[in-house]
Fold this sequence. Notes:
Keywords: Signal. This is Penicillin-binding protein. The chain is an alpha/beta fold. The chain has a single domain, classed as Glutaredoxin, CATH 3.40.30. Helices cover about 20% and strands about 25% of the residues. The protein contains three helices and seven strands; from the N terminus they run E-H-E-H-E-E-H-E-E-E. Strands 4-3-2-6-7 form a five-stranded mixed sheet. A two-stranded antiparallel sheet has the order 1-5. The radius of gyration is 14 Å and the shape is globular.
Amino acid sequence: MPGMKRAPLLTLLLALGTPADARVRLGEPLPAHPWTAAEREIVVIYSHDCGDLGGLWGAVLAAGLPVRAVNAEDVPAPAPAGVNVWRGAEATTFARRLRVSAYPTVLLVRGGRVLNAWEGTFTGNLGIKGPG
């Protein structure tokens, strides 16, 4: 998707000598968050400079799973009507604890653990069939 930008944290980690493959890890539990977890859910972590996310929002909303929006990096950016957005320092900390390397990042979560992750590469296919 055009307009995807590396997270500022990745640049900092590279400068500090941290391996470039510091990415969201499958199977990891989500860090602390303000929502009540569902059995399966989608978490979208994005920033203000991601460009047009209309296609991404359309795809994740069409999946029929609960969608959690995390607006990281302290600059408010909109989400579709009806999607609650978590913003502020805690939202940015959430993204950094997950080791997000690019925005937007889309997570498919099952039982509170990351089942699949797309960091800056989401094509609209979650690889799931129907809710449940």
